[in-house]
């Protein structure tokens, strides 16, 4: 019967933990499916038996009576999480040595899965995300454009990182990142790095619903550290300074447009636009917020012996509130930052470092 409990298994390296976890959960899943089949048949037969020597009640007992599911969509998905992507690749290799052939999909970041050389070449993860988004919006990445067609075909191999799927011609390849996001709806087993599972922001952005799933955390001794990391951030003086610099560039651009338009208006000429639909005053307000945050952080008194300071968790909210960053102002601030970042990513001319702004936006989120 389905007990719905958590289990912790410990066993030395090389004793076959991964295979045990995979095979037992997959076998249980098949058993669960069999119980549904048996129930469906029993309903049709109205109490009769299909085979005299094998009663329907013996077909699968994975679901208890009170959990009696009659839909195949109720068969729980298995979420298999490990620390790194390469560990997951290892697990998938092991899965291929078993008799099970579930539909699988691997979730990963663009950094891990992107195959567009132009985007991959970019050093910063943030820049990769932005360039990818821009390309996707203008349908300028052919790997992305191929995803739709691929979804119509038998396509699980590519998302699982199967080399044979990668041997297609360059033009035919589909983006594994977007493909895996779509395939996860139909997958029986979803593989993912821990952070996708443990970070609520990630779960939300991938639309991951854990309700009713079987979650396996491989190498779980790393989980505590990861939880700690996902609730932590660092914000350096350099980050803040670069965010302020980036805002100064935007302010200058916008001021030029306003000035230009004042002249144009005098001569009844068309008004110019920078592509950023924000008032000068609002951009200046954001810059002021960052400067206030900088002063609030500067004002924190550190102990002279360089050991840093430790405060209650709620302290961080008070610190941000000193710069008017609160739960009430958060959404509008994030929206403005998003608009500014989008503007900067498509701004012609000299490269503006947006890593500080990106970091701040992540932190506020
Ligand atoms: S759509 Fe996929 S392949 Fe194209 S840039 Fe984005 S992540 Fe890379």
TrEMBL record:
UniProt entry keywords in alphabetical sequence: ATP-binding, Helicase, Hydrolase, Nucleotide-binding
InterPro entries: DinG/Rad3-like, Helic_SF1/SF2_ATP-bd_DinG/Rad3, Helicase-like_DEXD_c2, P-loop_NTPase, RAD3-like_helicase_DEAD, Rtel1_ARCH
Annotated PROSITE patterns: HELICASE_ATP_BIND_2
Record SUPFAM superfamilies: P-loop containing nucleoside triphosphate hydrolases (SSF52540)
One Gene Ontology CC term in the entry: nucleus
UniProt superkingdom: Eukaryota
Gene Ontology terms for molecular function: ATP binding; DNA binding; DNA helicase activity; DNA polymerase binding; hydrolase activity, acting on acid anhydrides, in phosphorus-containing anhydrides
Biological process terms in GO annotation: negative regulation of DNA recombination; negative regulation of t-circle formation; regulation of double-strand break repair via homologous recombination; telomeric loop disassembly
Domain Helicase ATP-binding, first and last residues per copy: 1-296
CDD domains the UniProt entry points to: DEAHc_FancJ
Protein name according to UniProt: RTEL1 helicase
Organism annotation: Indicator maculatus
Lineage of origin: Eukaryota, Metazoa, Chordata, Craniata, Vertebrata
